[in-house]
Amino acid sequence: MADARVRTRFAPSPTGYLHVGGVRTALFAWLVAKQAGGQFILRIEDTDRMRHVEESEQHIIDSLKWLGIESDEEPVRQSERLDIYKKWALKLVGTGRAYADSTSPDQLEKLRQKAKEGKRPFLFRDHRPANPPSWDGSQPLRFKSEPKVYQWHDEVMGELAAGPEAIDDFIIIKSDGYPTYNFAHIVDDHEMNISHVIRSQEFLPSVPRFLNLYEALEIDPPKLATLPYVMNPDGQKKLSKRDGAKDIMDYKREGYLPAALINFLATLGWNDGTEQEIFTASELIKKFDLTRVQKGGARFDEQRLMWMNGHWIRAMSLESLAKSAEKFWPQEAEHASEDYKKAVLGLEQERLKYLAELANLTGFFFAEPNTENVIKLYKEPVDKQLQKNPPDYKNFLDTIIEELSGSDFSTKDIQARLNKLLDDLGTKPAVLFPIIRIAVTGSTVSPEIFATLNVLGEKTVLARLKAAVSALAG
């Protein structure tokens, strides 16, 4: 049943590109909102001015838009809400739950070192100043915690608990006037009526501190959902750049489809309890359930993503695929007609795993094969049948040219004539067809041979077959 009160958010920091872990978090939050008929909001958490990357915000917006994960309201920027955070901070000062922190970095380091030497965890609350100065904004403002035992329910992890040792005083407003994440996100979620906070596992140890702050602010916490990490391919550690955590827009540049990325990321640590692997966005909205998100990390498998993308490519209409493939053709295709490119695409659609493959797979449709490579493939055949019993290539090619010269070059007629040649030459498809393929494509692989010859056309095919004969004779 639709519940418009469900409001979720994705709250990235604009410090770099958006990668698969972040997008998966955004997707899960979007699915929860869409399923309930609620709203999904993008909030840019740009309070860390030291690490802020100017172009990162637009990159985040563009990435989500490409995938179809769009905010239902204008994006919110924390840097434009400083007065709101100050108002809430002053409330804590007024109730004695926040104090100005005049501790210098050197003093703080000495306190940490002393705790380390004493083999005990460092807790700032053990070193609170007895008489802190009035807060005038020139010093950091620190939350005054009240340690206690907490038990809470996580929509993914289930029932969780932590003791008072997990709770400490922490900075809520920095000396530059900007709030910290630990403070700002709680204020924002309350002010924006966020019902579900869905975020990565890295924040889980901080939840007891957040709960302590919710109480101090007299705010009811939203529902919390913690997503396990996306792990590297061997499942041993969190996915990193070294393991393939690349810019999500790299997938766009490589010719991955939004539908495939959405499908892949949704099933990265979630399933609907069946063997189904392929989901449309509308199916995901209908079936998604946070309680079915696995509690352990999900391994990132780029081969599975590639397989899934190939599936979505094959599911596209030729018209849609042609539009998506416009920027991926080889340079030699620049002057080819749209009809010809569409015919080529129709042949390659079954083989494509991502659109950037198109240039390498289809080059021979637009440019003559390298003659030296053709001769090398004849003299040093990769094909086992040609290795066993190397035929008289020139005689075979002369016979093929003679037979195809009388063809109308329809796929059906080409197939009939080449099948007839199998009997005439007393050979097998595994011998005859590679000989033709090498001559006309310069490769040992191509789409189905009869349709390939049909698309290339009589003039091109016969010219390439004759060029191979000449090269062999030379």
Number of DSSP E strands: 12
The share of residues in extended strands comes to 5-15%
- Supply the number of helical segments: 20
Distance between the termini: 77 Å
Low-confidence stretches: none
Q: Oligomeric form of this entry? A: single chain
Biggest sheet record: 3 strands, parallel
Radius of gyration equals 32 Å
Which structural category fits the helices and strands? mainly alpha
Mean pLDDT reading = 95
> What is the spatial order of strands in the main beta sheet?
1-2-3
Shape: elongated
Helix-residue proportion: 40-55%
Explained architecture:
With 474 residues, the chain is mostly helical. The protein is built from 20 helices and 12 strands. The chain has a 3-stranded parallel beta sheet with strand order 1-2-3, with helices on one face. Helix 16 (393-404) packs antiparallel against helix 20. It is elongated, with a radius of gyration of 32 Å. It starts with 6 loop residues before the first strand and ends with a helix.
List its traits.
3-stranded antiparallel beta sheet, 12 strands, mainly alpha, 20 helices, 3-stranded parallel beta sheet, 474 residues, 45% helix
Q: What is the secondary structure topology, with strand pairs?
A:
Layout: E1 7-10, H1 20-35, E2 39-44, H2 56-67, E3 76-77, H3 82-94, E4 98-100, H4 105-117, E5 141-143, E6 150-154, E7 158-162, E8 171-173, H5 181-191, E9 196-200, H6 207-217, E10 223-227, E11 230-231, H7 248-253, H8 258-266, H9 281-287, E12 298-299, H10 302-315, H11 318-324, H12 338-348, H13 358-362, H14 371-379, H15 384-388, H16 393-404, H17 411-425, H18 429-441, H19 449-456, H20 458-473
Parallel strand pairs: 1-2, 2-3, 9-10, 11-12
Antiparallel strand pairs: 4-5, 5-8, 6-7
